[in-house]
Task: inverse folding
């Protein structure tokens, strides 16, 4: 019954908002074995030479309202990377966890204005730099640790926010100039089993 | 997680400070936990907790009692209010039936959950006050650190297994002062309907660091139901 309600909720949120910015984000992410991964994805990760020898890659399947994808996650030089592929192994994007202070000042000013407008109270919990581009451009970006020419750079931010009486985690995607592209409420895990 | 393991090992090392006079109890504690969301900010939690004793005695072999017995039954209800996405305050009441006595307890707590990339921590600060017809009024102040680790992904999703461990310190004020430590490592399963089943071992180190301590070893069976 809960699953039916959840699907109905996701469906309602998705179809009722159209291009509206605020939706609900529900995703399931679980570990998968390397031999179940599309060959293109595996080749990209292990033959692009951006991985150091000691770096350990973990593979995940991600199911969300946007469909199913494959993610390679690894930590290198104290930075956490997440590289997403579609089911055929085609590169979708690269996400790199950064500190809030790494967002350009002018972009951050604009982001703050939007957060002030959309939330009564907010606190940034996590920031990721997102790169979208061709495989060559993305590899160059990973190696240089900044967006190479031709790469689209966005910022994905997770906040703890309050809107009216609603207190939740939200995920927001901003473009390089600080324009809001997407805002989703994260469907939170129940904390009952941890606090009672 | 590594920090929690170190603390847990430290607790178990304290358990290693056994003296021959220390007493122990061994049994099982099945717990039924019901949680219902009233609206976006309020939820109610009800718990039924039973305790069965299989064996008691002292580590020097004296006073051995292997008779199975039902020790007590607790029923509690707690109302929780969400202060922010990861903070809750709660207050509740518990009634205990034990050896023909009826014991009453009031509880207040504040909890914070801290989701990290592949682990979730929870901090719980709690106070409770107990009225037992055969004993003096008791006040306890408690802090519990909990950690939940998904075994298959970055968070615990339906139809997945997880590992959960809690470590709690209790300061007991009742005529005198006593310390108590508890740890409960469990293996859990979150069912597709989001109910959870947990199986583990609860260890309680009562009158901690004193000449004669109590040690409780309980097989823990937890069933969490979301209504």
Result:
């Amino acid at each position: 019954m809960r699953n039916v309600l959840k699907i109905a909720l996701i469906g309602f949120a998705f179809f009722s908002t159209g291009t509206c910015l605020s939706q609900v984000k529900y995703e399931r992410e679980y570990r998968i074995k390397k031999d179940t991964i599309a060959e293109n994805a595996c080749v990209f990760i292990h033959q692009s030479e951006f991985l150091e020898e000691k770096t350990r890659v973990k593979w995940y399947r991600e199911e969300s309202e946007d469909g199913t994808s494959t993610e390679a996650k690894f930590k290198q030089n104290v930075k956490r990377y997440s590289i997403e592929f579609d089911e055929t192994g085609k590169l979708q994007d690269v996400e790199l966890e950064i500190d809030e202070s790494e967002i350009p000042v002018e972009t951050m000013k604009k982001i703050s204005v939007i957060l002030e407008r959309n939330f009564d109270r907010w606190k940034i919990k996590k920031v990721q730099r997102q790169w979208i581009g061709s495989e060559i451009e993305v590899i160059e970006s990973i190696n240089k640790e900044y967006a190479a020419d031709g790469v689209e750079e966005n910022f994905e931010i997770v906040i703890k926010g309050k809107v009216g009486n609603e207190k939740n985690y939200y995920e927001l995607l901003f473009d390089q100039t600080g324009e809001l592209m997407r805002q989703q409420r994260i469907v939170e895990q129940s904390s009952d089993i941890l606090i009672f | 997680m590594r920090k929690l393991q170190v603390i847990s090992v430290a607790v178990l090392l304290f358990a290693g400070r056994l003296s021959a006079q220390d007493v122990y109890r061994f049994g099982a504690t099945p717990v039924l936990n019901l949680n219902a969301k009233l609206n976006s900010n309020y939820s109610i939690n009800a718990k039924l907790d039973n305790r069965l004793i299989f064996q008691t005695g002292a580590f020097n072999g004296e006073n051995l009692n292997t008779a199975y017995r039902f020790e007590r039954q607790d029923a509690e209800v707690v109302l929780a209010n969400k202060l922010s996405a990861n903070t809750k305050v709660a207050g509740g009441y518990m009634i205990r039936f034990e050896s023909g006595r009826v014991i009453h307890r009031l509880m207040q707590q504040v909890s914070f959950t801290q989701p990290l990339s592949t682990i979730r921590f929870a901090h719980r600060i709690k106070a409770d006050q107990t009225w037992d017809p055969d004993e003096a009024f008791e006040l306890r102040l408690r802090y519990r650190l909990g950690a939940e680790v998904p075994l298959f992904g970055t968070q615990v999703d339906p139809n997945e297994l997880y590992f959960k461990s809690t470590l709690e310190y209790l300061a007991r004020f009742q005529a005198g002062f006593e310390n108590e430590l508890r740890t409960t490592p469990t293996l859990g399963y979150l069912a597709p309907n989001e109910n959870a089943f947990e199986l583990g071992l609860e260890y309680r180190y009562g009158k901690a660091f004193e000449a004669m301590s109590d040690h409780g070893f309980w097989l823990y069976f937890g069933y969490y139901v979301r209504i």
User: Anything to note?
Assistant: The beta strands of chain A are 22-25, 27-31, 58-64, 67-76, 79-85, 91-98, 121-132, 152-163, 166-175, 180-186.
